[in-house]
Amino acid sequence: MAERETSGPIEVGRGGALRATQSLAFLVGVGLCLVLSFGLALGMLEGTVDSPTLGPGERINPNEAPVASLTRLPQIGTARARAIVAYRDRAGTQPGRTPVFSKAEDLQQIKGIGSAIVEDLRPWLQFDDPPPDGNEPPAR
Fold it and tell me: What is the pTM of this model?
């Protein structure tokens, strides 16, 4: 029977070399999977933060839009969209009354929306005209 040489923790022989190669291949595979997963996760995050899914010229009215539409705005995720709708519902938009949001700055009343976010949202927002006060003829 042939004797196996040992030098350090890894056996030098047919079985030991095979196990060492398999271990190395396993570690390389796991490392590659981790790197790819991390890269995909970052790519998905970057895509949702930087690019709105609105078409050119398309605008959203925060006085009427549901949560799903509001999340299409840049920097507005599900939590902020729900906060906008909840605030709007508490303030009670009713026909004949001034809308809750009449300009982009009104969105700063929502926790988590500051002036920088308002500036990013401005090109994507549309607001209703305020109702006539009785001194002006209605718009046609």
Answer: 0.54
